[in-house]
């Protein structure tokens, strides 16, 4: 049991049911590093595309806010309108970049694991308030891995930042001697290029984190042999229960079959081991149908019911075996047995006519023609 809880013997691949339930519970592979990479790279690219417009908007905003007349300053109503105008300009300038960041945050989260909405993750779990498991999680293997990733991300970003800022040092120093509009546009360009190089350092972290998250999530879903057996029992039912259900279904089918025996035209017997009840409806224009069939004890019950309801019993071992093995209940007999069964039904009809005083006694049937592929020996 201890091994099972520690996962030491979880050597079996997760079943489809396990995968489906884990997804419903919100347990899927997610990579924060991939989400961060997508958001940062998208923001940087948006800054490089819309940076010029943003710089122009900032210039207009600063010019409008810093060139205020004395009358406007003394009028509180005018100041409110000025503030509203400045806010509107800022929102319009930032709207394209914010829209890109919003789309990137959605794409970055569903890039690994796909879209998922689970209400089970919203249910409060009071067990998480227990400080004991919380401390254990703080010093767990996963926490150590997250710490290593954070240090690696910081180190890579720091090194890339130092290299980029060193290369752009002259451009940054030159900003102080440029006109305001030129300096703002140049600053946005330098900022975009620097941020792009620094964000590119996150690619390495994401390239390592994504395979790790996929592997780690699969390890959590691995199952023991006993878990697979228990799941099979839960989904398919316990063997004893399934056996009891099959027995009840068989008994119900036998009862329905016995109720149909009185409607048969003839019951062909082996004479003791097999019995098949046949019915032919000329109005439907189809082949004769097997209403009931059985062997040994069931064959005896069929014969008893047939005798009770005066259904003709006819011994034909070869035909009885052939029909028994080739046709299921409520199915038509195969084409290969049409001729043999037709001779039997004709004999039954003539015998009924004779017994009612309307015809001659029929001659005994000759050997019935049974095709070799349908013939069954004892």
From TrEMBL:
Keyword Lyase annotated: no
Chain intervals with Basic and acidic residues compositional bias: 7-27
Compartment annotation: Cell membrane
Alphabetic keyword roster: Bacterial flagellum biogenesis, Bacterial flagellum protein export, Cell membrane, Cell projection, Cilium, Flagellum, Membrane, Protein transport, Transmembrane, Transmembrane helix, Transport
Function, in words: Required for formation of the rod structure in the basal body of the flagellar apparatus. Together with FliI and FliH, may constitute the export apparatus of flagellin.
Family designation: Belongs to the type III secretion exporter family.
Protein name: Flagellar biosynthetic protein FlhB
Species assigned in the record: Pseudomonas kuykendallii
Name of encoding gene: flhB
């Amino acid at each position: 049991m201890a091994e099972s809880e520690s996962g030491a013997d979880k050597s079996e691949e997760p079943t489809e049911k396990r995968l489906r339930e884990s997804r419903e519970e919100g347990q899927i592979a997610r990579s924060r590093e991939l989400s961060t990479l997508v958001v940062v790279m998208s923001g940087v690219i948006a800054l490089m595309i819309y940076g010029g417009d943003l710089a122009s908007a900032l210039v207009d905003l600063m010019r409008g806010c810093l060139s205020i007349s004395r009358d406007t300053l003394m009028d509180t109503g005018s100041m409110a309108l000025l503030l509203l105008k400045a806010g509107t300009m800022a929102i319009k300038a930032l709207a394209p970049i914010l829209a890109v960041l919003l789309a990137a945050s959605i794409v970055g989260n569903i890039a690994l694991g796909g879209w998922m909405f689970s209400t089970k993750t919203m249910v409060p779990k009071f067990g998480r308030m227990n400080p004991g498991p919380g401390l254990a999680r703080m010093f767990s293997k996963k926490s150590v891995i997250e710490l290593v990733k954070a240090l690696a991300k910081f180190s890579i970003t720091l090194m890339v930042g130092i290299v980029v800022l060193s290369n752009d040092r002259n451009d940054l120093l030159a900003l102080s001697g440029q006109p305001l509009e030129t300096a703002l546009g140049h600053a946005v360009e330098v900022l975009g290029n620097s941020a792009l190089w620094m964000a590119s350092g996150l690619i390495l972290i994401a390239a390592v984190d994504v395979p790790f998250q996929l592997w780690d999530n699969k390890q959590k879903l691995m199952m023991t042999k006993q878990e697979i057996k228990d799941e099979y029992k839960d989904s398919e039912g316990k063997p004893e229960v399934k056996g009891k259900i099959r027995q009840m279904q068989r008994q119900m089918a036998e009862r329905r079959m016995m109720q149909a025996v009185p409607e048969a035209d003839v019951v062909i017997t082996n004479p003791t081991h097999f019995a098949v009840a046949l019915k032919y409806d000329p109005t439907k224009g189809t082949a004769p149908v097997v209403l009931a069939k059985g062997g040994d004890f069931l064959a005896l019950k069929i014969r008893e019911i047939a005798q009770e309801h005066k259904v003709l019993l006819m011994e034909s071992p070869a035909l009885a075996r052939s029909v028994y093995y080739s046709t299921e209940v409520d199915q038509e007999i195969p084409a290969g047995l049409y001729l043999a069964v037709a001779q039997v039904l004709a004999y039954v009809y003539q015998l009924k006519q004779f017994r009612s005083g309307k015809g001659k006694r029929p001659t005994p049937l000759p050997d019935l023609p049974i095709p070799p592929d349908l013939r069954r020996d004892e």
